[in-house]
Design goal:
This protein is mostly helical and 107 residues long. Helix content is 43%, strand content 6%. The chain has a three-stranded mixed β-sheet.
């Protein structure tokens, strides 16, 4: 695609934390969205990953492929009003994941 679709990403540690938080602090029957409430274009995500891993090559979008849904972003206002907010930013999460990869799988 063009790289313009926007997506929301949540670190798995934050997801686990939110689940425990809700189990301890929420007892209604309504659905609660778990997310960051922030999104990024796929193109900007690729640039962020390039920066973190030190890749100085060029990324190429395949515009013969469809973009899919233009935006996927959860309304997390209910969760925030309940007192929970993610702690790990996208950049920090990618850095942690890449560091783990280098230490454990890149041998």
């Amino acid at each position: 695609g063009t790289g313009s679709p926007m997506r929301e990403f949540l670190h798995v540690d934050d997801l686990a934390d939110a689940c425990v938080y809700l189990m301890n602090n929420y007892n209604d029957g309504e659905i609660v969205n778990i997310g960051t409430g922030e999104d990024i274009t796929i193109e900007n995500l690729a640039e962020l990953i390039k920066k973190i891993v030190g890749f100085d090559g060029k990324t190429v979008n395949d515009t013969t492929k469809p973009d899919g849904t233009p935006r996927k972003l959860l309304d997390v206002s209910k969760l925030h009003n309940l007192g929970w907010k993610n702690k790990i930013s996208l950049e920090e999460g990618i850095k942690k994941t890449y560091k783990w990869f280098l230490e454990n799988k890149a041998q």
